[in-house]
Amino acid sequence: MAVPKTARAKVAYVVNEFSRTFLKDPEFMRKTVKPVVLAGLKLLFGRRGIKVNIGGQGEVRMSPIFYFSNWENFGGQHNKGYASCVQACDGKQIFLDIGAHIGLYSLPISKRLSKDGRIFAFEPSSVNYKTLQDHIHMNQADSIIPLPHLVGAISLDQVDFYEDTDQISPMNSIACTSKTPIKVTRKKQISVDEFCQDMKIIPDVIKIDVEGAEIEVLKGAKKTLREHDPKIFLSVHPVHIKALGKTLDDLASIIEEIGYIPQTVEGKDNSDFHENECLLTKKR
């Protein structure tokens, strides 16, 4: 079932369909009309942004470029663990947002942590990272510390990263697939274990959405996960995992090794990863 769109998103959908059906040019609106409309919205709303209740988990301010987006219904299909992840952070101290994108998780969670709680938001994409920074400033969310790094098995100074350097994209990855942006950049990579040790922190909740690097992130977090048992919300990307020469069996093995079990967001068995959104919980 399709998720109902907001009024603004419906307007954008109708306009795009008109462009595709009647003008026979699906790119016309995006290339000609959209830039003009967005420029007007930026003038109207300025740096204060627009108010958006992302996935019904709390109102935050976002860039006017998302005026016609459907973020109010985020988590309805893909990212179905969104609400559970946000709510799991109520009163917690430390949240690691690995693959933070533009702050869709970090922004509402920043309002739910304990008074002195902190969020470490890792986002290697240059365009996404700039938008994440803008959103942090708009919301005066000083508890969010953005970091422009990859997260992997070990810390490295230079790692190949495929990204779209022209626009915001959720497809940026260390894996190269048919849908991956072709621009190759070089990024610093850190591991969860080294980062937590250096920062002297103990994460309560970790979100991992890294387009295929799931196995490497977990490998680099073994010590932290074994010693502190944080709750983990994991997005699984089978195509990207395969592109990196790994399999879902490899993912299952590392999860077993660190002493966790994969479940659906509802708490049912997900050992075959039939649902891509996983809740990893410690074996009892």
From TrEMBL:
Q: What is this protein called?
A: Methyltransferase FkbM domain-containing protein
Give the InterPro entries listed for this entry. Answer: FkbM_mtfrase, SAM-dependent_MTase, SAM-dependent_MTases_sf
Domain Methyltransferase FkbM span(s) in chain numbering? 97-261
SUPFAM superfamilies assigned: S-adenosyl-L-methionine-dependent methyltransferases
Tell me which Pfam families the record gives.
Methyltransf_21
Q: Where is the signal peptide?
A: none
Organism, scientific name: SAR324 cluster bacterium
For this protein, the parts annotated as crossing the membrane are: none
